[in-house]
Amino acid sequence: MKKVMLIILDGLGDRPHPYLKHLTPLQAAEIPNMDYMASKGILGMQYPIAPGVPPGSDTGHLSLFGYDLERDYPGRGIFEALGEGIELDEGVAFRANFATVSERGEELIVEDRRAGRISGHDAEALASTISGMSLLDGDVEAEFVHTLEHRGFLILRGRQLSSQVTDVDPHEEGYPVLEPLPMVADERAERTARALKEFLARSYVLLRDHEINRRRMNEDKPPANFVLPRGASEPIEIERFGDRWGFKPAAVAAGPMYKGIARALGFEVYQPEGATGLPDSNFRGKIKEALNLLDYFDFVYVHMKGTDVASHRMDPSLKVKVLERIDLALEDLIDPPEDLLVVITGDHATPCTIGKHSGDPVPVMFYGSGLPRDDSTNFHELDASMGGAGWFSGKDMMKLILNYSNRSLEYGLRPLPKRTWYIPRREDLTPLRI
Amino acid sequence: MKKVMLIILDGLGDRPHPYLKHLTPLQAAEIPNMDYMASKGILGMQYPIAPGVPPGSDTGHLSLFGYDLERDYPGRGIFEALGEGIELDEGVAFRANFATVSERGEELIVEDRRAGRISGHDAEALASTISGMSLLDGDVEAEFVHTLEHRGFLILRGRQLSSQVTDVDPHEEGYPVLEPLPMVADERAERTARALKEFLARSYVLLRDHEINRRRMNEDKPPANFVLPRGASEPIEIERFGDRWGFKPAAVAAGPMYKGIARALGFEVYQPEGATGLPDSNFRGKIKEALNLLDYFDFVYVHMKGTDVASHRMDPSLKVKVLERIDLALEDLIDPPEDLLVVITGDHATPCTIGKHSGDPVPVMFYGSGLPRDDSTNFHELDASMGGAGWFSGKDMMKLILNYSNRSLEYGLRPLPKRTWYIPRREDLTPLRI
Lengths: 434, 434
Prior knowledge:
Chain A has two domains: 3-68 and 238-427, Alkaline Phosphatase, subunit A, CATH 3.40.720.10; 81-233, no CATH class. Helix content of chain A is 30%, strand content 20%.
């Protein structure tokens, strides 16, 4: 049985770009280590959720980790909060960006969904201005926490709240801010929509007139005069990854949402020095940390966010640079331990040409001793589409990982009263006593 | 409409092997007939159950035959018993190997899951020693039947028994014999576990002290001092293959389990002279028999076990030899009748490098006149992974077979009250009478 390192390069998949002579970033980048691994391992293509369905970063990950999104997806906000170590017992959590809006009649138009990628002290100060608000005559308390760049999350604490409300964020610039609507005819959903509307109206007044935003406007920077909640989310029971797949798992990640997902699934989470969740992150430090963690864990998930950031900025040259820096970091995996399976893929495609997640397939590579082989010589979309691992659905990823790490249990065998897909650990078996 | 010959080469799929210059057995073997068929037919890759899931030989077959394992799988034991012509009305059947165990404290450690591949008179005599035992104060009767080599099956006859008990066989040498546990909180499952434990304890005493085992130990052979039941199984209603897919089916097989599956699904079963279920089987005789049967049947399933036996022995050279002998036998199919579709695949991969079933994909070949074409020139994993039949799930195999034999019914048409996937036989239609 092998140990596993699963490296997720966020938003990895891409399309040909005119600035790259109509190559994809993976094709244009100088990535000799990944190419070497491709020539020795096997490639394939996976649709993280389903063909043509663009995953969110949360849903793409959950599906690749082998969870059923219809049953096991609590909404995004919970993961954002857990990423900052905040657990929610009662209430609803939302992902929420700082944004720039303008008034047009009675509507608010979204001018910039990221308020000029505001960050640092400005974002912190504005967040504390709108946090701690008491809503619905004191029944509900709103907490707003800033995380990375323009990102944050909103928690509504209180009883009788529900995640069944629509997004306020229209997800498109030039569109109006949306009214939160109950998705079911249900008192809790209506209450939640009311509380959220109250929060939006009051926080808009506080943000619009805030001295930081006046200063930003004098400096010709877009003011962060609104927050756009989305991804309402309630706590639910999710089976721990370790129980589901028979691993003792750890995660190396810097982005709050990714740490949050990992914590929600019972991973131990590590963030090495210099790991930022940005294109300048310490990729090498992450791989070194992951290799060290393999002494204590048998599944290490490594998340690299930089590729996706470059894609959202629609900057293919930056994505090429990020891929090349990641490739340097992978040098330490070229000659991996005999008992290690390395898997490299993305949680979704983010084509630089469109600057957002797409439903395109994502290249995947399995690397390690004893695997099948194919004809691939390079790690990119074209070779992957003809690779020996074929085309598969992200929900099958964990079963393929069990298979290629020689951990899968033959269908029909049942050493444990509970159905498992993996060969059980010896200590979980009940010996016959005579 | 064509007739169909479906040839299952057990455990066909494989991985590159260092002894074969890092080729797979299919790549290393001299198989001019299969290669010729590949160049004229179309190849593909199929996951018999699902990506990454290692099938058992029973579950792999059932899935390829188009049955839903969640609903139609009775457990393995029934098929073993049916292979010997024994039908079970009431009770539970288990597959059970002779094994060698040693005592360590209160536990029994499995030293050899096959008791040195014991066979012949020794196995028969030991089987009769432990057969006919009366359990649970006479409520349950145990029957043990030896089949091939170290293999056999155990039947517990009686009322109020259940197949919802875990395997006693730990499936790994060096592991302890496992206690049979009820998989549901249910009086019948608990009773079955109790009856099984009584059988194990009493048969261990009889086998341990048996003169045959004393003699085997004197000859430095591992004693067959235990039987390892697994795959508890109860009779269930399974739709007949002929009704499900519109064929009149026959099977050519020698291994007991495969004959049992075929009988359970309503195939007529034939075992030509010299067909043994082993690497030295009479492959040519099987193909000749299958060709003859096509005069009376329109679907003939041919099972060849030798490839899987070589894989379990982790002997890639033997697998190459078996493939080459099978290839010679296929000479009679090179120039097939105009109305015949030949399909060659495996029920699972058994890589010689790991010596057990894996969840790897399995090559498949469709051969006959009027088929689509692809660029394949050789029958092996690499060409198959780029073949014109693509990648598909084993559960879709029968629908593809209906299609390539020009028997499938257009979706939405309904000439019969019952939904069928095939064009009905004329005699099954109800003419309007005026």
